[in-house]
Design brief:
The chain is of the alpha/beta class. Helices cover about 45% and strands about 10% of the residues. It has a 5-stranded parallel beta sheet, with helices on both faces. The protein has a 4-stranded parallel beta sheet with strand order 2-1-3-4, sandwiched between helices. Helix 17 links the parallel strand 9 and strand 10. Helix 5 packs across helix 11 and helix 16 packs parallel to helix 21.
């Protein structure tokens, strides 16, 4: 009893246990609390009150859902999704916006929508995410949100003093047909918003597409609104567009590589400081980001390079068609992907790849050889965004792992064709199948009927990993249940090293966990 009244091991406050009668507030971790006799009795009483299905019947159905029979039925499901690996467009829209200096994302919709987006990012980055909404409610749904948006803009400018506000929409605004372009023109004409204040806006309806489309729509809107003109002769600068990338370490790694090469560049949508700011004792609302002066000069650059294809399609079309630039997509994940990126940069700028970076490549290749015995032949199932899946798959083929199930909820036919071409380049891709438009519940059927050695994906795969007893390597977005992974790059040669150590050490942990007592190896 004394221990029950103390602070238990496993609580966020630490592992301290205080004696009974101590003048302290009793705090217990939920794992301990819900395992107590009182709560267990309450759960049993709840089942009785609700006339719950008997446990043996629940277990029987659960086992059936792991069968081939259920798999065939499950894979025929097309009218709805269960736990899809995607979010809605505005979430991607505000990520694009926050990458520009002194820019405030504004979501034209209800408070609940923007609260969800902020919390989603804050849980991933462990950082505050500044974004506001026009607070649309029932009256705005009937009469339109013009007044809400006007008041939201005025309040945001007065309270938060941004230099630019980037506006995206939600379901409510899209369903009722709010015309943001017309609204903004009226605001300027009536004088409620200054004529020269930047207000790029994008339609990002939540009921179509996904977060990667929202990112693309918002990024294109910002560039089209602020970057005028076209490529200027003699301008040797290049633009870099990261795409929907939630690894601040990736952006820092790209900047490091380009700086080492002596390249003149503009990183359009730089979230590395905005979402990974230092603790100095003073809150800064707009840390870092691409300076607006550099944004406005982007159209005059020599070329634009995107680090993702499927979250930048419309944006890259803008660079090619309106700016008349060479628009190139390179996904610098794994050795070959990084080689292609660096060679492209060298070709565009005339800058050689320095020996320091060549040495990094050699170290990454050496590490892959060191670990090859433990990565070779490992069967992998994964789920995520198209560009992440392409990069991770390319790396897995390089280390001799075998992708088996590749699930992409927000992929399309073009992605499927590109992935199948990639798989065909290696014998390790021969057993893989690409599932576009499928979800995590589909993936569950796949791994129970065709087991794998590893799962790769975001935190939402955790429950499947536990149920199927398959180790999970957390790569992608969101990652809520592990800290600081977004600070480590997964692109470039250093990123290849990071992915390698995550994968191989997960394999080694699993070997140790399942080893019999007489076969626990000290050396691997």
């Amino acid at each position: 009893m004394a221990e029950e009244k103390g602070i238990r091991d496993g609580s966020p406050a630490g592992g301290e246990t205080r004696p009974a009668g101590a003048d302290t507030l009793t705090v217990q971790d939920h794992n301990t609390l819900f395992s107590s006799e009182d709560y267990q009795k309450m759960f049993e009483d709840k089942k009785y009150f609700e006339d719950a299905t008997p446990c043996d019947r629940v277990q029987e159905v659960l086992e059936w859902t792991r069968s081939w029979e259920y798999r065939e039925l499950n894979l025929q499901r097309t009218d709805f999704l269960i736990n899809p690996a995607k979010a809605c467009q505005p979430l991607g829209g505000i990520l694009a916006a926050i990458g520009f200096r002194n820019t405030l994302p504004l979501v034209h919709g209800s408070q609940g929508c923007v609260a969800y987006f902020r919390s989603h990012f804050s849980r991933h980055y462990k950082e505050p995410f500044p974004a506001v909404s026009s607070s649309m409610t029932e009256d705005a749904a009937v009469f339109g949100g013009m007044n809400n948006l006007r008041e939201a803009l005025q309040n945001a400018m007065a309270l938060y003093r941004p230099e630019m506000i980037a506006i995206c929409t939600t379901c409510m605004a899209e369903v009722i047909g709010d015309d943001l372009g017309s609204f903004i023109t009226d605001y300027r004409e009536e004088g409620s918003i200054p004529e020269d204040f930047p207000l790029p806006w994008a339609n990002t309806p939540s009921f179509v597409g996904s977060h990667i489309i929202g990112y693309d729509n918002m990024m294109r809107a910002i560039l089209a609104d602020q970057a005028k003109g076209r490529r200027a002769e003699g301008n040797e600068k290049i633009n870099i567009i990261p795409g929907f990338d939630t690894y601040t370490g990736n952006l820092r790694e790209i900047k490091r590589l380009l700086d080492r090469m002596g390249v003149s560049y503009t990183l359009l949508g730089d979230t590395s400081d905005a979402l990974d700011a230092p603790a100095t004792g003073e809150y800064v609302m707009y840390p870092g980001g691409t300076p607006l002066e550099e944004l406005r000069g982007a159209a005059k650059a020599k070329a634009t390079v995107a680090l993702q294809r499927y979250s930048t399609k419309r944006t890259m079309q803008l660079a090619a068609d309106r700016w008349k630039q060479e628009a190139v997509v390179c996904v610098p994940m794994g050795i070959r992907g990084t080689d292609e990126f660096l060679q492209t940069i060298s070709r565009l700028t005339g800058k050689p790849i320095p020996e320091e970076i060549r040495q990094e490549r050699g170290r990454a290749v050496d590490a892959m050889l060191d670990s090859h015995a433990y990565t070779h032949g490992r069967r992998v199932a994964m789920i995520g965004d198209p560009d992440i899946l392409l990069g991770v798959t390319a790396f897995l083929l390089e280390v001799g792992a075998e992708p088996v199930h590749i699930v992409c909820t927000n992929g399309d036919a073009e992605f499927k064709e590109e992935m199948e071409r990639l798989l065909a380049t290696s014998p390790y891709g021969a057993s893989a199948k690409v599932w576009v438009g499928y979800d995590m519940w589909h993936l569950r059927s796949l791994v129970f009927t065709e087991p794998v050695d590893l799962l790769i994906g975001n935190s939402y795969l955790k429950q499947l990993a536990l149920e199927a007893d398959i180790p999970l390597v957390r790569i992608g977005f969101p990652i809520f249940d592990r800290h600081h992974l977004h600070r480590y790059p997964i692109i470039g040669y250093q990123g290849a090293l990071n992915m390698l150590q995550m994968i191989v050490n997960t394999v080694l942990d699993e070997l140790d966990r399942k080893a019999p007592g007489h076969s626990v190896d000290l050396i691997r």
